[in-house]
Amino acid sequence: MKFWKKNKLIIIIICLCIGFFALIGYTSKRSNINFAGNGVGIILNPIQELFYKVNSKIKNTVSFAFNFSKVKDQNEELKKENAKLKNSIIDYENIKKENKRLRKMVSYENENDKYKYIGCSVLGIAGNSYLDGYIINKGTNDGISKRMVAITNEGLVGQVTSVGSNWSIIQTLGNENISVAGFNQRSQEANGIVKGYKDDSNNVLAKMETSNLEADIKEGDTILTSGLGQIYPKGILIGKITKIIEDKGQFVKYGIIKPAINMSKLEEVFIVVPKDKRQVKY
Question: Is residue 189 situated within a structural domain?
Answer without folding.
Answer: yes
